Description:
Blueprint: H1 2-18, H2 24-42, H3 47-80, H4 83-94, H5 98-116, H6 121-132, H7 137-148, H8 155-168, H9 172-197, H10 204-223, H11 230-244, H12 259-280, H13 284-289, E1 293-294, E2 297-298, E3 301-302, E4 308-309, E5 312-313, E6 317-318, H14 323-340, H15 348-379, H16 382-394, H17 398-413, H18 416-434, H19 438-452, H20 457-466
Antiparallel strand pairs: 1-6, 2-5, 3-4
Amino acid sequence: MSYILAITPIIVILVLMVVLRWGGQKAGPTAWFVGIVIAALAFGLNWQVFWVSQIRGILLSLYLLVMLWPALLMYNLVNQVGGIRAMAEGLQRMISDRGMLLITLAWCFSGILEGLAGFGIPVAIISPMLVSLGVPALTAVAAAAIGHSWAVTFGGMGVVYSTLLSVSHIDPQFLNQPAAIMLGIACLATGIATAGVLGQGRSWPKVIVLGLVVSAVQYGLIQVGLSPLAALGAGLTGVLVAILFGYRKGDQSANTVDKKALRIALLAYGFLTLVLTILALPGPIRSALSGFFWQMQFPEMLTSTGFFTPAGLGPSFSLFLHPGSAILLVALGTYALLRLSNHCERGAFGSAAKATWNSAAPATVGVLFTVGLATLMEACGMTQLLAEGVCLVLQGFYPIASPLIGVLGAFATGSNNNSNVLFASLQRTVAELLGLAPAWLVAAQTTGGALGSMIAPPKIIVGCSTV
Length: 467
């Protein structure tokens, strides 16, 4: 009975989102409330455990949200002046082979968009682009959904990966390599699958070369501590390699590229890449800025049933080194540049802010309550109990099922981020109980979540609506 009660909040959120098709902004608070009731009745939830777990959840959420909002704001500013479309049109003019162009758009260019903003934007943008090139609507949505999934974990300037590190409590130096290896394999597999869906299976040798290069770049960026740039840098490299295959002349009948918009997009994101690189790499600048941070000390917790959580530190908020700070400054600088060069109207910032609000506000509500549920379940021993139950049932076969749990979470909640919030701590606890390396199971979790996002109903709906 205890196992059933412990898993009930997760079942509630899955049923609400899959069966009733509620959004995260409604399903999250409902499951959170159910979790509180069950924790109070069966797992010894008291006032101290409640407020400590929820403040910890809020801080974990804020660490993510201060990257999400600026990343979407910057994307919307650049998109308003046609910068994103200019990049796609420039790519169309440089790659004359139609098959290679379709693969590059659906796979590599979608990786760039995922790296810039995430949250279903690649599927919404790439799908109609493919349709305009003669791809059937259904095939276009499928290709974009499959093609972007490899980049989801490091999408949105590393938002999802930062959340994964926070909720799993694993040091990046241990998680970086397993995540890079498993997601590299996923990158190669999704490239081959995208080519097949688009009817371009004959291009598999080039796709394999592209996949190896993109995976290697992603691996390298992660290893040097540039995870916010991993998807963006890897996708951009893939596009450049596709061009270097010899398809330089391009389709001269294509629409003329808006060179001003293209320059703005390249300048904005190029400068952001430079700033994030400088802040991430060891050196005098990082050393000088590293002292400006705040970190909350949490007291130990003890439930009425005797489950003990030791005292510990919350996430570290660095005023200058947090990626969100750099993204926000560059976004504001981009707007200033657009105004000074008369590339946008006075109300452009308001329009971009409104578009950001429409995308980020529902996601924010879902994140806050989903993370709050995860920290509550962990503090009350519900996650530990579920892990013990999974170990009892699956034992040595668990590693095979580990990524499938990530797939299930992404399908049900609509995002890899929510899947990681729900299941990352469970994956780590199971690994410890089975005597396995936690980093590899957590990497399997986020890899499964990334691949599962290709079948997440919200993304499919968005893609269908744009075509």
